[in-house]
């Protein structure tokens, strides 16, 4: 099967990593994988893993340049002639919609989050099949859009259990990264994700300020970069750190390629997101490595996190709850193997890939 996936960029994030992984797995299974994006540091990985990457601006919201970009995309689609067009985001979906209007190739969209309800977002419900990455998102789009449940398929985000395995951890790399970041001898509480207000790093930082009063060796590690339009928010976080005199206890590590080592050197993982339409890739990746996770309340997470067994569910924007949960977790004797074995099969990469291919086969 020849598949072309489209997404805005290939820099960082769960959607981007998901496309990289499906590209690799599709190729392993004998399918022909093509990816279109505006580029990014992970674009080369698509090629290394055997897929084809095409750099095209399907990221910009500029309406004036849209017609020329549609023509370029139409030319590309006619050249590749895919059996499936799979749009992973709104701008790529709109451009694909118009570029594919005459050819009418089978069109799939994946709704990854709880997007604002409007005409712009509605395009994500226009696929011949609409994949939702959780039951929450399925219910959300059915509530707000006129869409037949017959075209919706729920496919949970899956994590590569072979890659994110304690056995794959390179202790020398972990030690090197720990020293590089100045974290030797520290108790490390890590939060992973783009620097954006949705991640609620304010609550994380303020909670860590309280935790550090009880545990001076604790450090809050924030792993994730930020786009230029989020620079003001990033600076506001640095100001909070400065006001709390937490410069020695909060570390902004930026993007990190070796996430396996990041999780491995961490003692606890925190996901304080304000809005989650899916389980959050970082949650399952951390659990796969046997790390306890503190995560905000979300329907899907109750299938993953069980208090005291593999982490704790915390209230949204609740500094006290996160602080108390962290202090409890620091004293809890978690078992690495028990945490890893708590992950349901539906959250694995193998299950996700097979489910996506099954959706494709329905409309080819």
Distance between the termini: 9 Å
CATH C-level label of the largest domain: Alpha Beta
Indicate the structural class. Answer: alpha/beta
Q: Which second-level CATH architecture of the largest domain applies?
A: 3-Layer(aba) Sandwich
Major sheet details: 7 strands, parallel
The helicity comes to 25-40%
Low-confidence stretches: none
Q: How many domain units?
A: 2
> What is the molecular shape?
globular
Strand order of the largest sheet: 3-2-1-4-5-6-7
Order of helices and strands: EHEHEHEHEHEHEHEHEHEHEHEEHHH
Short structural summary:
The chain is an alpha/beta fold and 364 residues long. It has helices at 14-28, 43-48, 66-80, 90-99, 119-122, 135-144, 171-180, 201-214, 231-243, 259-265, 281-288, 319-331, 336-340, 349-363, and strands at residues 2-6, 32-37, 52-55, 84-87, 107-111, 129-132, 152-154, 187-192, 218-223, 250-254, 268-271, 293-296, 311-314.
Note the topology.
Layout: E1 2-6, H1 14-28, E2 32-37, H2 43-48, E3 52-55, H3 66-80, E4 84-87, H4 90-99, E5 107-111, H5 119-122, E6 129-132, H6 135-144, E7 152-154, H7 171-180, E8 187-192, H8 201-214, E9 218-223, H9 231-243, E10 250-254, H10 259-265, E11 268-271, H11 281-288, E12 293-296, E13 311-314, H12 319-331, H13 336-340, H14 349-363
Parallel strand pairs: 1-2, 1-4, 2-3, 4-5, 5-6, 6-7, 8-9, 8-11, 9-10, 11-12, 12-13
Helix pairs in contact: 3-4, 7-10, 8-12
